[in-house]
Recover the amino acids of this structure.
């Protein structure tokens, strides 16, 4: 959960590089180096009149740092922070296929909370309509025959315990790629949100997805997702998850001190 919120416009100053900001400077410095190496200027170290400071680049979005700092970078449009944030929220909504409304809850809090609230709301829609399940092959020791007896493995495991049988059978379970990705995203965002309503929804979703495994490789899970008529209702939520996890989407940023970061190149001209 973040404890400090810094909001600036693109190209605006985030913080001075000074002894008073030693911890924040170290974190921003590492993140700026990562951004430079990737050729994506979200945060940069600059100098002016002998003073050095960190400024926002040409990307707009948010970064949650491990010290509890939330950095929000808004597009330099309009006359108010609220208007600029709505432009950013609308851009995110357009990218993930969500219908944006300026009156949506949390759009005036900060962009990270809006991002999280949309994810939590869309997740609960899927849960209420029924998550998809699939048959998966399972091998285990049982006291009755279900499926196929694996004789070689049964002899090896149950030579003494003859009341048991080692079998392979199919189980109808919600433990499938789409749900594993959603669970990983829900767990990540729940650790960071400061909004009680979003946290409640995310915890409810995690409780419902208790039978779903934690994915070992998010990339592998995305490759297992199949676009069919049945999975169409997952479209928006998986788009958000791709933006959150998939480097190929170009919106996810990382760093040693970055818990979560999401930035976009905006159509708005930034000089």
């Amino acid at each position: 959960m973040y404890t400090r919120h810094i909001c600036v416009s693109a190209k605006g100053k985030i913080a001075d590089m000074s002894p008073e900001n030693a911890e924040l400077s170290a974190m921003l410095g590492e993140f700026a180096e990562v951004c430079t190496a990737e050729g994506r200027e979200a945060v940069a170290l600059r100098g002016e009149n002998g003073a050095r400071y960190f400024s926002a680049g040409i990307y707009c979005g948010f970064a949650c740092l491990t010290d509890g700092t939330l950095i929000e970078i808004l597009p330099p449009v309009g006359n108010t922070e609220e208007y600029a944030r709505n432009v950013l929220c609308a851009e995110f909504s357009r990218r993930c296929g969500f219908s944006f409304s300026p009156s949506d809850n949390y759009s005036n809090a900060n962009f990270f909370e809006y991002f999280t609230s949309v994810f939590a709301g869309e997740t609960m829609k899927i849960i209420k309509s029924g998550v998809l399940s699939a048959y998966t092959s399972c091998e285990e020791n049982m006291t009755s025959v279900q499926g196929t007896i694996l004789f070689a493995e049964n002899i090896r495991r149950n030579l003494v315990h003859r009341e048991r049988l080692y079998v392979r059978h199919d189980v109808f379970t919600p433990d499938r790629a789409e749900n594993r990705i959603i669970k990983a995203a829900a767990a990540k965002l729940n650790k960071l949100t400061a909004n009680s309503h979003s946290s409640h929804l995310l915890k409810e979703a995690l409780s419902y997805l208790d039978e779903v495994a934690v994915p070992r490789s998010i990339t592998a899970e995305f490759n297992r997702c199949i676009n069919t008529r049945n999975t169409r209702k997952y479209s928006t939520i998986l788009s958000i998850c791709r933006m959150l996890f998939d480097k190929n989407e170009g919106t996810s940023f990382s760093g040693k001190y970055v818990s979560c970061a999401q930035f976009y190149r905006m159509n708005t001209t930034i000089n």
